[in-house]
Fold:
Amino acid sequence: MVEEDKENKEEEDKKDKEENREDEKEEEEDEKEEVNKVSDVEEDKERASESPDSEGNDKEDVVKDDEDNKEKVIEDDEAEADEKVIGEQEKDMDKQLKRIFFVIGFLALIFLGVFLFINSVRHFNYKGIDFDVVKEGELILYKTALPVKHSTGTGKVILTEYNFYLRNDPRKLENIPFDGEFNLKENLVMNFTENFNCDGDGIIAIANLMNLFNLLKTNVTTDEGSVCDSEEKYTFLRLQSGDETSIEQFSSSCYNLNINNCEVLEVTEKYMVEIISELNKIL
Structure:
């Protein structure tokens, strides 16, 4: 009995030890579970603490991107504005340049017009004769040159110009009537029906005619009783008073220079212009 009790006691002790071991294991497992729960909680906390940061970072990135886009848009707008300003400035410069060129062109045209006007006033051509307007003090003269051939001692012929000065504008002498043609021979006879002094104009008129005839090597004589030669041996030139200042051809080489109101210079200069015009056609 004693042995059985002892054995039973040993078996109970074993059972108690095994139960204690199982209880220890269960306690260890419980502790592990609690540790795991704690670690899970800590991880969740960490995740919770990390997630706002990541969201904040994402938000910061979005905000930064928006700011970058806004800055880019602003830069693009500023660039477009600058281009518009530059374009407007270029247009303004083009307009100003066009205005400047227009003003310069306009002034050039005015200058050219004034130059041509002055040139036309000082120089002009009438009936193939070139005239220069010359001012001598208060006196205005109309100068022209007649080319004349001269023979040298060696037999060489040279061409020189002889200047004539008219007191009247040859263009205004167009108003003096003349119907006919001029025929100048080697000999010329002048007839004065009266003395045409006319405050010295008659002297100047006759001197100009004589210079022209001498230059053309025309033999000139004055004869108050002379008449037109029917045989046309000479040119006959008669100065007489008339109701109208005019030149009248009444034969092939006979002419009346009719003088009214002492216009002796006008009629003689008209005659000279016609002679020089015909000579220029020959020369």
Remarks:
- The chain has a mean pLDDT of 81.
- The longest strand covers residues 139-151.
